[in-house]
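Technical annex, item 7. During the second reporting period the consortium partners agreed on a shared format for inverse folding records so that results from different sites could be compared directly. Each record opens with the tokenized structure and is followed by the designed sequence. A conforming record, contributed by the partner at site C, is shown below for reference.
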């Protein structure tokens, strides 16, 4: 009986303890569940703290900031829309949410969207050779017979050389060009086989915009106005090549200046894009946020397309890094692994940087727009803070690194010389930190330094030959400068001191070719110093024309030299100097022609 009573008492104690535990769990579990359900950014910042986090981030970099506009979208709603800093530092004009920024290359997303709209309607096919859509005989410089498709244009792997920045930009508003004629006139050489190498191509995307024009029967900017901007109520954006359809936006755009990273104002920062669908859009960050929201609809609504499947297709992987299952492009959108998989695109124009990043799964995305050229604090830093760091590590078996050159290069343009000087050497450790490395039997065949382009190996022999080639050029320039100074000294001594031999008739040509050689050096220096400011190609023609003139003068001088040496007898010392002058002129002429410094 006592055992039974004790047993009953123990049961009551256990029951009380269990009841207490259940009560605690009943209170704690909902609280824990509620904590788990707090919505956050990919980097685990609660959305309720996002605006405060951005404010604090901007405040910490205030002295490096001109203007920055930030928009965050979640589930189709704008949860942050703020502007910071100054649109015009000199006049202390503050930026606000109505400030108009340049989209730059983010404009390309309008091309890809337009193409997919026409694909949905059955008017375009992504795998059809684009020559089916273009006027007969449109291309004159194709090297390979393989078809070029719209997918190639989206992936930047049609194989074209790069256009120089001087060909991409122009400055005079009245120099508006017909898009088709501009593309035909500026056709680049095809230097790679289609599908083999990714080399970012403004020309290719501009071509896709032209195909939209041909198929839709509308100028590209009109098509975008009707089929993208108007449905999304993007009332503060234009992609007209010069903005002439929206003079109010042009006026607002002219109220913002462009700056360097050191916050120095960039003169003439209002530029126009030759292949305008690739980078002419300008508008508010808020409007770009509307476009971003349309890419992440919260339900079955899909304003941009008649079918949700088309949007899903556009945002699905269409190109992987070679030999891997790692996504690279989704129909022109870049795929990037931050803490979560994202889609993005970046833009850089003279004095402006912009970026749009979003996670379709969580329906969270951000727009960052600044008036600083090649900006990094917000373009990369703020994005990494909100989305987490982007990392991808390769398994490299190669025992050593090597020299590599960007596939995005103007192989037959005057700027190829400066790209050759940009050959980069990567160690094995550095190769391991890149997006992707393609190897075969331990030999690196290609690396992807950024999603937008590949780098191709350059042999040590080629690098050394390039270096060695500058030795005779340097000697020729030094000789021309020395010969010019020496000639002037001789002439002065003879004229005033009557010392030395009198000048010969040929000395005039001798002086002229060396004087031209020194001017050539000065001319090349001017070209080099002007390139960072993206001058219009038309403004460089006089410099390139002088280079070509030097080649003509050098050939004429060599012909005259050979003739004179056969017909006249000069002193041994004179002959040596004349011949040396001919050799130096020949070296400089070969240098100009070999590096296309006249086109």
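Designed sequence (site C submission):
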């Amino acid at each position: 009986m006592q055992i039974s009573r004790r047993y009953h008492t123990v049961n009551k104690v256990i029951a009380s303890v269990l009841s207490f535990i259940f009560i605690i769990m009943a209170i704690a579990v909902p609280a824990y569940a509620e904590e788990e359900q707090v919505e956050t950014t990919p980097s685990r910042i609660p959305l309720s703290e996002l605006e405060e986090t951005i404010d604090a981030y901007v405040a910490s970099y205030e002295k490096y900031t001109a203007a920055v506009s930030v928009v965050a979208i979640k589930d189709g709603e704008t949860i942050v829309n703020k502007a910071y800093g100054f649109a015009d530092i000199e006049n202390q004009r503050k930026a606000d949410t109505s400030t108009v920024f340049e989209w730059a290359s983010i404009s390309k997303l309008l091309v890809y969207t337009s193409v997919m709209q026409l694909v949905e309607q059955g008017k375009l096919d992504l795998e059809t050779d684009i020559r089916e859509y273009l006027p007969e005989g449109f291309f004159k410089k194709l090297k390979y017979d393989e078809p070029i498709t719209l997918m190639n244009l989206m992936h930047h792997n049609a194989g074209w050389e790069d256009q120089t920045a001087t060909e991409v930009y122009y400055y005079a508003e009245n120099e508006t060009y017909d898009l088709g004629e501009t593309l035909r006139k500026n056709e680049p050489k095809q230097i790679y086989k289609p599908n083999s190498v990714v080399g970012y191509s403004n020309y290719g995307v501009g071509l896709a915009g032209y195909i939209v024009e041909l198929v839709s029967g509308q100028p590209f900017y009109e098509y975008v106005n009707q089929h993208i901007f108007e449905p999304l109520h993007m009332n503060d954006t234009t992609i007209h090549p010069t903005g002439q359809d929206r003079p109010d936006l042009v006026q607002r755009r002219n109220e913002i200046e462009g700056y360097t990273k050191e916050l120095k104002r960039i003169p003439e920062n209002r530029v126009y894009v030759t292949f305008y669908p690739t980078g002419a859009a300008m508008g508010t960050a808020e409007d770009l946020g509307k476009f971003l929201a349309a890419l992440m609809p919260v339900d079955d609504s899909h304003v941009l397309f008649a079918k949700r499947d088309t949007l899903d297709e556009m945002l699905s992987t269409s190109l992987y890094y070679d030999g891997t299952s790692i996504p690279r492009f989704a129909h022109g959108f870049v795929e990037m692994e931050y803490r979560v998989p994202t889609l993005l695109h970046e833009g850089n124009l003279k004095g402006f940087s912009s970026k749009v990043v979003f996670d379709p799964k969580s329906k969270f995305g951000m727009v960052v727009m600044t008036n600083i050229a090649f900006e990094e604090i917000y373009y990369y830093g703020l994005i990494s803070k909100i989305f987490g760091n982007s990392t991808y590590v390769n398994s490299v078996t190669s025992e050593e690194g090597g020299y590599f050159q960007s596939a995005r290069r103007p192989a037959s343009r005057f700027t190829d010389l400066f790209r050759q000087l940009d050959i980069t050497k990567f160690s094995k450790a550095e190769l391991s930190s890149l997006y992707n490395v393609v190897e075969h039997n331990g030999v690196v065949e290609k690396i992807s330094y950024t999603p937008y382009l590949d780098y191709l190996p350059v042999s040590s022999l080629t690098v050394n030959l390039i270096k060695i080639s500058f030795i005779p050029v340097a000697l020729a320039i030094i000789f021309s400068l020395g010969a010019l100074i020496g000639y002037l000294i001789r002439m002065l001594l003879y004229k005033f001191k009557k010392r030395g031999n009198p000048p010969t008739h040929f000395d005039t040509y001798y002086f002229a070719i060396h004087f031209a050689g020194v001017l050539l050096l000065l001319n090349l220096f001017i070209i080099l110093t002007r390139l960072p400011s993206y001058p219009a190609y038309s403004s460089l023609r006089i410099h390139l024309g002088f280079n070509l003139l030097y080649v003509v003068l050098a050939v004429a001088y060599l012909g005259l030299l050979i003739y004179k040496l056969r017909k006249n007898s000069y002193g041994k010392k004179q002959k040596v100097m004349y011949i040396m002058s001919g050799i130096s002129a020949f070296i400089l002429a070969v240098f100009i022609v070999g590096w296309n410094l006249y086109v």
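The longest helix spans residues 460-497. The two ends are 112 Å apart (CA to CA). All partners now use this format for quarterly exchanges.
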